[in-house]
Specification:
The chain is α+β, with helices and mostly antiparallel strands. The chain contains 2 helices and 11 strands; from the N terminus they run βαββββαββββββ.
């Protein structure tokens, strides 16, 4: 699996870790842990990826998150291409110090846009429309934009409905 981050363009720290247990542990990570809020956010979105997908079948079991902190202390996320799914990376100035709620909503939106835009997968879909990831006072939630209701906290969809 090839990394989508350009190692030569930035002075960055990059961690790699599997979306799901059993996908293997990548080597060569920095010797310290990335920010806990971001790790929780990536874990929560990975859990929700198992639920409510429609469209082309994709295999996510072997995907490996790539988490980057660049020299400006901004975050980038992505995964490399593997099996039936293409790779992506995204970084738009989110701070490494972002709250868990902001990080989880941003990661969920990034993955949602990637899957819908390139892989033709509707996620997170409840019926015929996509739910929206939003950060709120009590955490990060999936919201039905048609009526504004909170459907679930990000990371808690397995076992619902």
């Amino acid at each position: 699996m090839d990394s989508l981050f350009d190692w030569m363009r930035y002075d960055s720290l990059i961690w790699r870790f599997p979306l799901y247990q059993g996908a293997g542990q990548p080597m060569g990570n920095p010797e310290f842990e990335p920010p806990e809020g971001w790790m929780r956010a990536l874990d929560a979105v990975a859990r929700d990826l198992k639920s409510f997908r429609a469209g082309r079948e994709v295999t996510l079991d072997r995907l490996v998150w790539e988490f980057e902190i660049n020299s400006d202390y901004h975050v980038g996320i992505g995964w490399g291409s593997v099996d039936s799914i293409g790779g992506f990376n995204r970084g738009e100035g989110m701070s490494m110090d972002a709250s868990y709620a902001d990080a989880a909503a941003w990661v969920a939106e990034a993955v949602q846009m990637e899957l819908a835009g390139y892989e033709f997968v509707q996620w997170l879909s409840k019926g015929r429309h996509l739910l929206s990831a939003q950060a709120g006072k009590t955490g990060a939630q999936w919201v039905d934009l048609h009526d504004g209701t909170v459907v679930a906290d990000i990371g808690s969809l397995c076992g619902r409905w």
